[in-house]
Specification:
Blueprint lengths: L1 E5 L5 H11 L3 E5 L7 H8 L7 E5 L4 H8 L3 E5 L2 H9 L6 E6 L7 E4 L2 E3 L1 H14 L2 E4 L11 H4 L1
Parallel strand pairs: 1-4, 1-5, 2-3, 2-4, 5-8
Antiparallel strand pairs: 6-7
Helix pairs in contact: 4-5
Length: 153
Amino acid sequence: MWFRVDNRLIHGQVIEGWLPYTGASHLIVVNDKLAHDSMRQQIMMLAVSRHIDVSFVTVTELSEALGKAGDDSFVLFENCRDAEEAAGSGVSIPVLNIGNIHYSEGRHQIYPHVALSDDDIDRLRHMHRTQQTELDFRAVPSETVSSPDVYLF
């Protein structure tokens, strides 16, 4: 099972890089708005192979979806808030890949592909301290895992 934060949700790096790397056969997209937007879901589904089962769920539905999908799941969050809320609701996230969060005003550019707000940093610290979630900062699987220590701990 693999957990990733990527504000782009379903896109080429996930489809061509991460799904083959993890061997996942089920993609679970966790986003409260998207879970209720069938038009956006249909557009995103165009990028996914028919061999991959895709579910669009709210944060509160994630635990049940994982129970049905099994261990070969790839879970995709749009933001750190949703990941922390899922962990707080009982979903075990041993490793969280922070793949892409675009820069905007008020965010700190941590890596070329990751800009975190103070709230993001607080949420990741909380997950690390209370759930022992390991943080994995990589855009693609072939990158070396970057340590967040200087920014988060």
